[in-house]
Write a structure and sequence with these properties.
The structure is a single chain. By secondary structure, the protein is an alpha/beta fold. The chain has one domain: Double Stranded RNA Binding Domain, CATH 3.30.160. Helices cover 34% and strands 29% of the residues. Helix 3 runs parallel beside helix 4.
């Protein structure tokens, strides 16, 4: 009975520590952004999300703020294909000021820790994410709608012994940033090719 009680207490402590840890957007973790094209599109893009989109989190050794990360990377990526850049808003009341309205939304996320593979001394992790990207004109005409999937993206192998919860979460956060950047690069490239013709 004492052993069970101790395990329950330990489980509670680990859960409490994990839940108090949050990984947010970090520009230094972004993957390589798409190259700026020689001929930029006229105007600027609006990255439109809801408050619910922005607050979307995934529980993995704490909270991974997928909504915020997706939103900020979307602004950075789409700003590279428009002359006036890109801006974010939770409202489209002034939609006429923008050439297009982009709504990026994570629709699936999977995580797997490969610990036993390295006999407990080292580990790596895998993430897989899908993002639905909806693009409309300022008159709400849909010009692009596609779900982009990363496939399995595996991290480098790193030492596991003594790895703190926050450190592990940051490593997962980095791989997630890179995967999201790749997906939004693909989306922006598709949109650019559609609009330049």
């Amino acid at each position: 009975m004492k052993i069970v009680t101790r395990l329950l207490i330990l489980s509670y402590i680990v859960t409490a520590l994990g839940c108090s840890t949050t990984a947010t957007y970090d520009p230094e973790l972004e993957g390589e952004l798409l190259k700026i094209p020689l001929s930029l599109l006229n105007g600027k893009a609006l990255i439109l999300t809801t408050a619910g989109d922005d607050q979307y989190e995934y529980p993995v050794y704490g909270n991974l703020q997928l909504g915020e990360i997706t939103r900020e990377i979307a602004v950075n990526v789409f700003s590279r294909i428009f002359k006036e850049g890109a801006e974010h808003s939770n409202s489209q009341w002034n939609a006429e000021e923008y050439a297009i309205i982009v709504t990026p939304r994570p629709v699936a996320y999977n995580f797997d820790l490969k610990y036993r593979r390295y006999l407990g001394y080292a580990e790596s992790h895998q993430v897989e994410i899908s993002i639905l990207v909806r693009v409309t004109t300022n008159n709400d005409e849909v010009i692009h709608l596609n779900t982009y999937s990363s496939g399995i993206k595996e991290s480098e192998i790193y030492p596991a012994k003594g790895l703190e919860i926050f450190t592990r979460l940051e490593k997962i956060n980095g791989t997630t940033h890179e995967a999201i950047t790749e997906l939004l690069n693909r989306a922006a490239t598709d949109v650019y090719n559609t609009l330049k013709n």
